[in-house]
Amino acid sequence: MTFDARAWLIWLFVGGLMAILTSNPLYLALLLFISRMVEGACAPIDANGWRLPFWRISLAVLVFSTLFNMLMAHVGHTTLFSLPTSWPLVGGPLTLEAAVYGFLSGLRLVTLLSFFLAFNTIVPTHEMAGLTPRALHELGLIMLIAITYVPETMHQFRRIRDAQAIRGHQFDSLRAWRPVIIPLLIAGLERALNLSETMVARGYGSTTQVKTPPRARLLMFAGLLLALGGAIRLAWGGVDGWLIMVIGMLAIVLAYRELSRLFVHTRYRPRRWMLFDTLIALGALLVMFPLLPVPGFDRLSLAFSPYPELGLPPFDLWIGVMFLGLAMPALIVAIYSSGVEASS
Fold first, then answer.
1. Cβ burial, residue 102 (10 Å; 0-12/13-18/19+)
2. 27 and 98 together in one domain
């Protein structure tokens, strides 16, 4: 069962935004669990296995972030141990609060990475290319090809490593990895050459001179000017600089919309927006409901700081229930699968 890429884009935007705005470890752990559950339920069966590498990367990020902040930020009341003050940068008391703050920063990054990884695993490449504006179609296609090369390279790496291990090769030193790295580079160059020949054979890169409309130029110039003015306004402490930057970004979006009308783009079988896509979009937008000035939500619980003294993070049950809206894709797939099994 597949869903529209635009619905997944809304899901990714809301999940990533909440991962950035939330510093409470309970909410971050809930978002991380939801993103992993959605990927496990909606990812194709033949998808590249990123689960084990993801947890290894997550562990490395959490350990590094915790140690780095504990060594650099000597703030907090609970001192674990101290380093000599004569040591530059790291000298001084190492506190539990600094370690927890570093762990929370790493957890936020891991949660954001989990949403992007789930989106990249679930949404097919050709549908991701269709999300880019037609004026930026070639740039979006190049970026998507680069993204898909990462899991393909990892898959090729595992194949070469397993083949060498079957031959009895021992990976006990850096020099012992040479029989893996060299075939991996050669295979990557061959795939790149085959891809370039295929794209040239299909006419990729053949362009025509199109005159840019004056309206698009004016919108682009105004958008860049407003974005720069908003950034300068923010630098001087003006809160209204955010509004100016948003207006500038909208002008840039309208400029690219004008440019996209000049490019003709057809699809062999266009995908229709279905009811399930609407449910996914509504479930994702429901998560942003606690950010609105609506009574009944403890919005202050979204922010948690272990300074100056560590305490238990608060948890609002209704905000946690709203966060479950991001699990709508997994719920739809579970209901659909149970219905298919019952009918068969």
1. buried
2. yes
Q: Report how far Cα 174 is from the mean position of its chain's Cα atoms.
A: 32
Residue 168 token pair:
């009895």
Of 262, 285, 301, the residue that ends a domain is 262
Which domain, by its residues, includes 88?
5-207+273-343
Cα–Cα distance, 103 to 28 (Å, whole number): 12
Span 294-320, pLDDT tens digits: 788 888 899 898 988 888 899 999 999
Tally of domains within the chain? 2
CA distance 8 to 328: 11
Angle, alpha carbons 274-278-282 (nearest 5°): 170
Same domain, 281 and 257: no
Residue 335 near residue 23, CB atoms below 8 Å: no
Give, rounded to a whole angstrom, the gap between the first and last alpha carbons of the chain: 16
pTM of the model: 0.76
**What would the DSSP string read from start to end of 270-331?**
PPPP-HHHHHHHHHHHHHTGGGSS-TT--GGGG-----SS--PPP--HHHHHHHGGGGHHHH
Residue 267 forms part of a structural domain: no
DSSP 176-232: GGHHHHHHHHHHHHHHHHHHHHHHHHTTTT-----PPPHHHHHHHHHHHHHHHHHHH
State the residue for tokens 């927006």: 273
Q: Could you give the CA distance from residue 257 to residue 133 in angstroms, rounded to a whole number?
A: 7
Phi-psi region of 89 (alpha: psi -120 to 50; beta: other; left: phi over 0): left
**138 φ, ψ (degrees, to nearest 5):** -65, -40
Q: Which pLDDT tens digit goes with each residue over 34-66?
A: 999 999 888 877 665 556 678 888 999 999 999
Lookup: tokens for 142: 């190049």
Residue 274 has pLDDT above 80, yes or no: yes
Residues 285 and 89: their CA atoms lie apart, in Å, by 44
Domain membership of residue 186 (yes or no) is yes
Question: Which residues touch 169 (CB under 8 Å, ≥6 apart)?
Answer: 176, 179
